[in-house]
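Hello K.,

You asked for the raw outputs rather than the summary table, so here they are, unedited. I folded two proteins back to back in the same session to keep the settings identical. This is the first:
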Amino acid sequence: MEKFNVIYAVIATVMYLIVAKYDIHMFQLNSYRYSRYFRWLAPENIVSTKRVFALLALVSAFLPDYYGLGCLSGITVVALLHALREKFKTPLVFTMRVKRLFATNIALFAIAAILSMLFADTYAKIIIGVLLTLSNLIMLLANLINTPIEKGINRHYYNDAKNIIRSHKGLIIIGVTGSFGKTSTKNYLASLLAEKYNVLVTPGNFNTLLGVVRTVREQLRPYHQVFIVEMGAKQPNDIKEICDLVEPTIGIVTAVGEMHLETFKCVENIQKTKFELIDSLPANGLGVINYDSQLIREYKGCTSPCKMLKYGVEQKADFCATDIIYNGSGVSFIQGDDRFESRLLGRGNLLNILASIAVADYLGVPRNKQRNAIARLQPVEHRLSMSRTGGLTILDDAYNSNPMGAQMALEVLKNFCVGEGNKRIIVTPGFVEMGSRQADANRELGRTIASCADYAIVVNATNREAIKGGIDEGGMSADKIFLADSLAEARAHMATILKVGDVVLYENDLPDNFK
């Protein structure tokens, strides 16, 4: 075993740690699902900065010992500095699963590197370089090896969470799902119910089965009276799995839209999956549905015998809002015999409030306490939240990633009062994970932008052609459109055109695995 090969292998292992972290991060962002990860492994994503570093490391293996070692050392230092500076919107979460995957991944690389030095010493550097370039495949092999272990651990955690819930007699469990609006509705409902009950909600985006299991095991206490569970879904049966665990007695479906069509395949599957929540409710339970959502109104497959309540703004429903007044500081409306005021913006937030009122009424929260809670509601960060800075108004809807939600946000932008000479500006990369509907949906977004905004900045190349095509069809002049390769470039351009009094809407922000 040559000394140079050993030193080369040690430095290569440092490089492998950097590349492996990126591979595992992208695997996590793709929900640890092979199908989604392989769809993500398109040419534009395979040729990432990390992959370039790995290829350069392979090239260094063909250089003479001293030159190859120096070259690899330099590449590793640059890669490390790049990794330290790199910022992600959704950083890698170092769960126990990730730590186990890291350990197995590094073990596989180390074993292969050691075997190459023992039995193929002449070609050891080249073999190690090839391993670096194939790091994503080694990571997937490590995950495959760990799968039986992960299933056993998850089964233990699931059963533990199930026993905790069963031992909590009298706990009111409320499920909230929908293609959009579920996080806001969950938070608004929690604020209203907190006027009477001790409430626990699933935190952040803990809306998967394992996220709910973790919430139950770590946070559910005997003094909690209400547990509000956000339920996300990317394929059929995702909602049913969560319902089988928590057994809700109240369910809210906020909307059904064309989300995650890559995995759902068709809108009928989305409808059926969202209504898995309502179908899981007992006969004495309560289903609350947004009747403004066309795909909810049209769904005929619901089999639940529970009581149903409808809410809406445009459609006649059990809980409607009348005498609606929108202004720059929020909304005022009448529901039943009471007038409510909120600092929240847009029709979408009004619908989320109506859903919360319906459940709060059902659970006996007095109207005067509901009114106070609604007046105090704060927008969920990055979901049509408004801020003012340097004379500019910023509408942040970066976490919205669906056509209907974008339309509602653009309605707010269109109706926003601006001074003479001021602009309504939208910054957006469009929608992803919509399968065959993606191009059409982004073209329609472009047409809506043309009718609602004065200036459009399209970020990233993913949907550029479709969005710009729609904007052109809508009649916006070419000098009012800017195509940016990154959000940083978009912001740099905005600095040259912004004036005090302008309004900027940030509509959606592609996840890191689409950069």
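The second followed immediately with the same parameters:
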Amino acid sequence: MPTYKAPVDDFMFIFHDLLKIQDRGDLPGFEDLTEDMTRAILEGGAKFCEEVLQPLNQSGDDEGAVFENGVVRVPQGFKEAYEQYCDNGWNRLGAPEAMGGAGLPPVVTFAFAEMGNAANQSFAMYPGLTSAAYSALAATGDDWMKEHVVPKMAHGQWTGTMCLTEPHCGTDLKLMKTKAVEQEDGTYKLSGTKIFISGGDHDMTDNIVHMVIAKIPDENGKLADDLSTVNFFMVPKVMVDPETGDLGVRNGVSVGSIEKKMGIKAQATCVLNFDEATAYRLGPKPQPKSADTGGDKPKSKSSGMAGMFGMMNAARMGVGIQGIAIGDVAYQNGAIYANERLAGRALSGAKNPDGAADPIIVHPDVRRMLLASRSFVEGSRALAMWVSLMFTEARASKDEKAREFAEDMGQLMTPIIKGYFTDKGFEAANMSMQVFGGHGYVKDHGMEQFVRDARINQVYEGANGVQALDLVGRKMTAKGGRAPMAFFAHVQEFIDANQGDANLKPLLDSLQAGVGDLQHAALWLAENAPKDFEQAGAASYDIMTMFGIVALGFMWAQMAKTAQAKLDAGEGDPEFYKRKLVLAKFWMEREMPMTASLKTRSAAGAETLMELDAANF
């Protein structure tokens, strides 16, 4: 049976030693974030995740969500855990105080999200998606929705979903066929089918609020073949009285089936059929753009997509944190097993001479896998928390330059966090399963579930290849390449300021080499992609991976400096800080050198990739 221990001490190190959030009273929500306060929040959340959510993870996987006679049921214990989750206020950590929430900033709420997903990803997705849905509704909805719908979602009485994908249409949203026809009273009748809808139906709450994108047909009833008439809609499972907020009749939303999935089986992933369901448009109504005088239809952007894009970006950040979470819980169990399992003798001589064999933790390759997993987990956790802080700075800092930098970092890092983190999280789960040998392949230890659950994170909310293309095609080129240049300058400033530190110099030299490789790849891209866009597509995945390696290296260099200062001052647990230094060295020695090969690969170009005719594959 797998176990989980929430990394409270590591979060405390990141919050108060690295990011020093206790000194950020200039930002909303940070005023009371003393060390005592954050430790109390983290320890309370850890206790709930460890004692309530984690024990349901394996049983939930065994039982799965069930669809019978038109009704979806979650596994045993989930409904009771959800009620306790909401009663304790864990779903309202980031909700405004006016809604009964704690008003805490993303840096804290994402930390709790990691613990919840590590303990039980299938469960954590229900409230996680609800939070994203009600935040989008609060930003774009009518006053009656903010009064009657958003508070019930924030309190957990109702849940929410995000409905984008259709059977014939995933990332390419302009292929959507779901349509919304305006009615005389200003509502819409929405019809179509959406698939892969997480939390699409269940028996935990009385209502589910679907956030749906659909096209508005023209006066002839035809749908545009672009995004010009796409809009964002609220579609409740059960109708809501705009005057009182009371529930009414069932809306035209039904479940066609639930997906039979590789993992996250306790999460009800539904096919939803909308049959002239009453829908409420959110945000301004887009209009189709007319053709120009040349007769060619211009590309269009939909103002109705803004709310959904905000929700999608939050979800992508959340999925990246799922990558950290699964990597962490898998690593923890792998480390426990490696210290207990006896097999073979250490190459340097027996370490357990009174036993029949040594524990497998003595073997270098077992250590390689565990160190690779842990160095990723702790480095990515630090980066995710830093970016979470950037989200608040971008929104609320009083310093214009700080807001600009924070906005750039948030935009630049989101596809990296979603893509690179989920790739490495799956890799960490896979390596931790490998530590178990054959025992990892059977269900008893729970390791194969972590691998199965981790695999979806690379796929949904935009497959990782799409994230890589978004990075090189949009995020790195926006505003003349301002964001990557700001990142490079920020890293270089740290390197230059600490070159005189003998303890840090080997780490900084490695980081400098990685930054140089990444800059070289970015320059190659800037020179070649404008001539042939396929060059960007061919190089994108390698560049995203390089960015992830370098960004985590930057975090490790900063954490190493902080840990060494704590050791020199004789503060805290010396073993904690010594471990940080070893993990930093591992990342710089074993992971950072990969940027050199990735630089070569990214410059190989698109020719070989595009050479074969499709029929020859």
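The longest strand covers residues 269-282.

Happy to rerun anything if the numbers look odd on your end.

Regards,
P.
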